[in-house]
């Protein structure tokens, strides 16, 4: 597929190949060519990313680590290094912006690019895709897969058709020929339960859905029947949106050994609050609501939230709210053992200094936070926090 989509728009979907795992293999030659996952190193964690060598064993992201090790006893694992991944991600996104300002980031390793306005300057969408892949390789020594099409839906599907290190162009004249044979699961929003209903209705491919009678589709998709048929036909008029507002910022941890002691829970809650508040401050944001996520040993998951009087990114303020939410939950669940804890901030607003002359208001960021942020900026990777967050459990 090597011709330009015959459309007024040229949209790229760029997806880094096994990003976290590829960064780790790049930086550690001993990991190259071996089945590797990034995630919790104990059996209680989950896979955050899997190298292509590990995917041959059926290992995928979000799989429990114990299951991944069962499938591949020789599996290697490393803990995530988000600071490193964010640094590489910035390099990648800097490459994107060399070719267009219209970049919609979906995650650290994935984005839509509208290069319609760049065609006269850089050539076709295919040529821009190849140039982006080459620049990313030069700057990061990593590969990316690119889909080129007239819209976001088809570009995203295309980027997954020739991984890793692929480039697939889907021109409008060949749209149905490319999409029709693909499994129905490539259409966004079709999950496991919907696939069961599709199978029962005798529909297994994108083409089956595109050509199906609307009455049959309504039995499967209800009020979304027509919309799904449009997707199966590659119809999508969504624009590439350059700015995606953060809805929440959070940190969570799955523990190798269930937490049974409330004091240990409080210590871990503080560590998570420190991580969340630091991320808020780095993003220049403050949270209006604090959320706590708690998963019991039996996998039952609870979320609780509490509004702040004024938005804040201060660790102590967020921790007081998180601690109160944990206290209330423990009162409801006496003796409960905890498998996972998480702390998040939502209803985010841009950080402000507030009223500097209001002596009754609590500052959004206190002096301890500022000192910690300064040390982290000067010495990346330094493990630092309040003394009580380092208590032995």
* Total beta-strand segments: 12
N-to-C order of helices and strands: EHEEHHEHEEHHEHEHHHHHEHEEHEH
**Main sheet?**
5 strands, mixed
Uncertain ranges = 1-6, 353-365
CATH topology of the largest domain: Alpha-Beta Plaits
Structural class: alpha+beta
CATH class type of the largest domain: Alpha Beta
Estimate what percentage of residues fall within beta strands: 15-25%
The overall average pLDDT, rounded, is 87
Determine the number of helices (DSSP H or I, runs of at least 4 residues): 15
Corresponding CATH superfamily of the largest domain: Reverse transcriptase/Diguanylate cyclase domain
Description:
The structure is a single chain. A five-stranded mixed β-sheet has the order 5-6-1-7-8. It has helices at residues 19-27, 52-55, 65-71, 82-99, 119-122, 125-140, 152-159, 175-179, 192-200, 206-211, 214-221, 225-232, 262-282, 315-332, 367-378; strands at 11-16, 36-39, 47-50, 76-78, 103-107, 110-114, 144-149, 167-169, 248-259, 285-296, 301-312, 338-350. The chain has three domains: 1-172, 2-Layer Sandwich (Alpha-Beta Plaits), CATH 3.30.70; 180-232, 5' to 3' exonuclease, C-terminal subdomain (DNA polymerase, domain 1, Orthogonal Bundle), CATH 1.10.150.20; 248-390, Dna Ligase, domain 1 (2-Layer Sandwich). α4 (82-99) runs antiparallel to α6 and α13 (262-282) runs antiparallel to α14 (315-332). The chain contains 15 helices and twelve strands. Residues 1-6 and 353-365 have low confidence and may be disordered. β7, α7 (152-159) and β8 (167-169) form a beta-alpha-beta unit. By secondary structure, it is α+β, with helices and mostly antiparallel strands.
């Amino acid at each position: 597929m090597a011709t330009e989509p015959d459309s007024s728009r040229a949209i790229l979907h760029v997806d880094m190949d096994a990003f976290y795992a590829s960064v780790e293999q790049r930086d550690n030659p001993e990991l190259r060519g071996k089945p590797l996952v990034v995630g919790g190193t104990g059996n209680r964690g989950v896979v955050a990313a899997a190298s292509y060598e590990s995917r041959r064993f059926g290992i995928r992201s979000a799989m429990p680590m114990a299951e991944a090790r069962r499938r591949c006893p020789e599996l290697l694992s490393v803990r995530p290094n988000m600071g490193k991944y964010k640094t590489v991600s910035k390099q990648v996104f800097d490459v994107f912006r060399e070719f267009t300002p219209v970049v919609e980031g979906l995650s650290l390793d994935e984005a839509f690019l509208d290069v319609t306005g760049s065609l006269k300057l850089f050539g076709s969408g295919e040529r821009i895709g190849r140039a982006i892949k080459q620049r990313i390789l030069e700057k990061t020594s990593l590969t990316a897969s690119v889909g080129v099409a007239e819209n976001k839906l088809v570009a995203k599907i295309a980027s997954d058709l020739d991984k890793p290190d692929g480039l697939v162009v889907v021109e409008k004249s060949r749209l149905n020929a490319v999409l029709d044979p693909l499994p129905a699961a490539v259409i966004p929003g079709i999950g496991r339960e919907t696939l069961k209903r599709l199978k029962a209705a005798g529909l297994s491919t994108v083409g089956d859905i595109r050509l199906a009678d609307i009455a049959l589709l309504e039995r499967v998709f209800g009020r979304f029947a027509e919309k799904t048929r449009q997707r199966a036909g590659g119809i999508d008029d969504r624009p590439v949106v350059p700015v995606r507002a953060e809805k929440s910022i959070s940190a969570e941890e799955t523990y190798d050994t269930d937490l049974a002691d409330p004091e240990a829970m409080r210590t871990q809650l503080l560590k998570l609050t420190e991580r969340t508040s630091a991320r808020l401050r780095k993003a220049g944001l403050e949270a209006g609501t604090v959320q706590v996520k708690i998963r019991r040993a039996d996998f039952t998951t609870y979320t609780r939230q509490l509004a702040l009087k004024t938005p804040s990114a201060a660790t102590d303020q967020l921790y007081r709210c998180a601690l109160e939410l944990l206290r209330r939950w423990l009162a409801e669940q006496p003796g409960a053992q905890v498998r996972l804890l998480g702390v998040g901030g939502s209803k985010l607003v841009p950080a402000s200094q507030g009223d500097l002359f209001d002596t009754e208001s609590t500052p959004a960021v206190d002096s301890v936070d500022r000192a910690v942020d300064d040390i982290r900026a000067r010495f990346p990777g330094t493990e630092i926090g309040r003394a009580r967050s380092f208590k032995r459990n």
